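task queued by scheduler; priority normal; single chain, no ligands, no partner chains; default sampling; output format set to structure tokens
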Amino acid sequence: MQAATLPYSSGWSWIQDGFKLFRLQPMAMFFWSLMTGFLITVSYLIPLFGQMALIASTPLLTFITLNACRNIAAGRPMLLPMWLEPLGDISTRKRLFGLGLAYLAFCLAGGFLATLPFMDSLMSAIDAEGSIDEPALIAAMRGPFITFAALYILISALFWHAPALIGWHRIKMSQALFFSMVACWRNKWPFLVYGASWAAIFFAVQTAGSFLSLLGISAGMVQIILTPVNIVVAAVLYCSFYPAYVSVFGGNYPAGATQSEDVNKLS
């Protein structure tokens, strides 16, 4: 698998192309964003195991998203039965499930490695009677959070393109992780722009909510206003995954293949 090396401006182009995809079938992607939000909410209702299940299912959800975007880019209406079609093949489903377990294992290992050096400071925030000094605990958690954030960048690079590489190209997991890491490294500047742009977008949405509160609008009304906005922003985020993949690996498709045509339509 040959990964293209793109200019840094591609990071913003992925977001623009994602928005173009969203505009083609906004209700379909709004529905998917709503469903993923629902799954995230449900996962938090089941302490620990819910979050673990959500992490393990991330590659499956990502592959569903990519297939939906491919259908939308090709001009095919996303009907309800089409959402689970990518998982209809047993082999693909098993391979993606295995990728999900690997992703969970990497995240757990990252959390362990990030926490281990700070165990003394974390334990010092809990006295002999078991009461917690909250300010001390919050201060002690900064180190693990920062360390895990750095480790998670590496984990994300390993798994970013892996669902598509496994699901569409049917290559081994180890190869998919390697190709994904190489692709992300070659395009580190576009991904930096991509990540910074999304951080700015989400910050702008939250700032808008704070501004509405300053105008005297009740917290409940602000929540009502921001909820659909957040769903749309998340939908555009999901849509941007597809152009990010196609622009990097599109050269591996024969001339006239669906993915190559789709990326041209978005340009």
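post-processing summary
- Residues 10-266 form one domain.
- The chain has a mean pLDDT of 91.
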